[in-house]
Batch of 4 targets.
Target 1
Amino acid sequence: MTDQTSISFANLTAKSDGVVVVFAEEGPKLTESAKAFDKESKGLLTKAMQMTDFKGKAESSVDLLAPASLNCSRIVLAGLGKPDEITGEDWLNLGGKVRAAVTGKEAPEAHVFLDGVKAEISAEDIANFALGTILRSYSFKKYKSKKNASDDGKKTPEKTLKKIVIHCADPRAAQRAFAKEKAVGKGVNFARDLVNEPANVLTPQEFAKRARTLAKLGVEVEVLTEQRLKRLGMNALLAVGQGSTQPSHVVVMQWNGAGEKGGAPVAFVGKGVVFDAGGISLKPASGMEDMKGDMAGAACVVGLMHELAERKAKVNAVGVIGVVENMPDGNATRPGDVVKAMSGTTIEVLNTDAEGRMVLADCLWYTQDRFKPKAMINLATLTGAVMVALGKEHAGLFSNNDDLSNELIKAGEESGEKLWRLPLGPKYDKLIDSKVADIKNTGGRWGGSISAAQFLQRFVKPETPWAHLDIAGMGMGSPETDVNRSWGSGFGVRLLDRLVRDQYEK
């Protein structure tokens, strides 16, 4: 959950106290603000650089107690690296690093002086830096008992950072740019909250309830219950959830930020298996607790719709999530069963643990049939095989459209949420041919992430530009980075926001 640290902007000459953060480019070359603090402290920063061999390289820093002549209690001198090599992702990560350095234990305020040696830092880069501080601030401690009692039994309030002031050349421009990034931060952290929740709390019904809260931002939210899903013929999705006592849902979210002139929406579809025991094809006990995060794709879609509405994005977008629980009981789908999907395609269920593709099959068909989107992108923690191929550095990308694929890869590079395209093709498609039905829900051991994508493609009309993002390595059990210390990273929100801004927003 996001902390309550406020972020504001001020000019470079505004008063500062508490903890002060200044920078040096590689060389080292102190920025103008750093030079001013160095002069006021009678060469403290210069001496520190000489004693520590600080060269201003990226990811390096020097932490100093401030002398009595300064109003601040502490000075952090951080390296920027080479100015012509700093990317937007670097500014984001720098914000995370700085937020980690200013914990609030020394002072409740931190003043960050963002200026260069020669060139002025853009408002967009400053906003990216501020977003990095928001993302790094997140922690999920909802179920931690609060024990801040001192030896005498009296509770002592925890010292935390209350305020970050970013000093820059044009505070108003930075504030305007930050308004969008602040919305992105809220969307990412909303998604993180969903992924981190335990499955006994975040049931399908509770997931749908939380998605409904987007209505207060102007999102049109519709929840399809099991009775409605049966009438629609969403039997593939229902087959996954029929072993659970929790009813399945599909949630449809519409944001019409571009109005009628915006035309058809861009659609985002998410797998929302709130807990995946594997069904009758029961998973091993080891690591099964992580399957509370098997709804990270759906969480991303909800987080994305939240941030698009929060920042009043001028785009028409629709989000569709299938929310189910995959459990074994006497009513559960059996290996060998045949079900008919909404599209009319019959599916032989060989493995009930290959359930996410069943959920997405009906959601993809429903989305394109109802909304006829200009593009459709789905996200799912779909296969362990994609982690064998790509680890936790890239999400897998599969697509029937080169333009959409290239746009997503570009958005991934810009946002830092990177993708790697994997192949689709007729020979892979043969892996899911069934002898008793139209298709089977698993293609065997080899190329598991590819055969899963081929399965999904069977439910996408050829004329619909479509991409499937397999985020199994990124959405849960996420690697720790400069901007993420959460088990659930909220992966995909920033990526797809960048795609919308670059390609679809009017």
Target 2
Amino acid sequence: MRNYRSTPVYAVLTALLVFAIGPLVVLVFNALKTRREAATDAIGPPSSVRLQNFVDAFDQGNLGQTMLNSALITAGTVIGVCVIAGLAAYALTRLEIRGGGAVTAYLLVATAIPAQLFLVPLFFLWTNLGLYDSRFGLVVIYWALYSPLATLLLRSYFVGLPRDFEDAARIDGAGELRVLRDVVLPLARPGLTTVALVVGLFAWNEFFFAITFLQDDTKMPVVTSYLAFTQSFTRDWTLTSAAALIIVLPVLVLFIGLQRKFIDGLTASGLKG
């Protein structure tokens, strides 16, 4: 009777699994097909494996250069956001600043406002400041885009941290920056890991601002490589699928390696504060 009652649950879980894994399986199938086979059968498995698609996609999309650019942009974004969000979250949870509640509400609203609304004034501002067509200029934009969400996540995590060690450090004469560096940040490592992974994933996959604020082909991030597989009215889906697998591989490996810390940090930040 118990197994019978569990059947609908397993059926729903199986449907969700197919819904989640199905597109990835189709992506792998198309990456291994010829163009003719992908055009005639876009869902089924390939009749023969064509690994040359990965080589062609890597060369035609210039993935070596674009992945290096994305790595630099993502690293700069993660480091900057972690510093900005860490300092802001510490100030909101430990320094008891006046108007901290209003700042938190502002950050919450900022995460809901579409950043595309500020595209035109931001474009002219970046042009006047000499930051247009600059990877650093794009990184600064990402700092502004992702710092509010990262601050809210870290604030939720900081609220749940015990203050005994911080009070002991202050009694010993440590200043606030030293307390943050030597006490709070080591305890908040799972939360920082969560923020770094989430922000890194956003920066790695971001396309709109990258294609808008970068012009030089040697500075383009990896997501813009998909444009290399588009012709006038057609797209080579075999090379697109192969490039997608190459692009997602570093993120997948990184997530699997830090999966436990990511889940611990995300759970803690969601349940506390």
Target 3
Amino acid sequence: MTITNTTRMTLKAIQSGHTQIKGVVFDMDGTLCKPQTWMFGQMRSALGLDKGIDLLTYVHSLPEKEQEEAQEILRKIERKAMVEMIPQPGLNQLMDYLDVKGIPKAICTRNFPVPVDHLLTSFLPEHTIGPIITRDFMPTKPHPAGILHIAEQWGISAKNIIMVGDSIDDMEAGDKAGAATILIESDVNDHIKDVLQTDVVVQRLDEIIFCIENGFDTKN
């Protein structure tokens, strides 16, 4: 595997052998599959929300009947995005490596279960991934509860976990849980690269192999 120049410059925390990685938690949208940023614009438009309002926080604040109606609006858009999924470069290379090393893999996403199942059956049918945390698990990211639940299920400390994602919610959730954080760089998340919650930035998923092989310290 070739590490890109961008990755070399952003691996600020690399220190050989400091963090033993025993598990990796992945976001889904924009992490395991390529970003579909149009999806969130359609969701906000359908619900009449400004950009500064968190979608799921708003939906969960609604009365029960209205909440289910809003959830179905989101699910309809997510189903549309589901059929257009494209896997991230390096996805299977990283998963194969983690299998060889015996490192467990999990998903912590704010999506609903159907698109997650579609991704697993379409792109990762030979890999075991679990637990799977969707937005049915409360509270959702950026709260660390999902990651801490995964760590408990695995029987390991969150300090030995990497949270891989593409959003500030992913970075904050991982950081609050005490995990290391890796940001998958895209053309819409440049502003997250230098925040304190982001430890390492990569352009491809298989670049994470370099991080695990060489070890790295978190910023905190």
Target 4
Amino acid sequence: MAKGEEVRNKQVLLKHYVTGFPKETDMVLSTGSIQLKVPESSKAVLVKNLYLSCDPYMRVRMAKLEIPSYIDSFELGSERVFFSS
């Protein structure tokens, strides 16, 4: 894929920090477009996600931590946090 095709993209972004179990209202669905481009010399692959799962590890990162931890909380609205398809 030298040139890269442009495709529509959906993302689930963190809208609010979570207290307890995550709810749909804690997230927002964003749409846009991305270039499907992998460098010629790269051995990378493109993957399309079909499902989003929030495991217990992610729940901790979805909360606003009041005390320092070895991991940071996710950034609200950051597109590098969750999922793109």
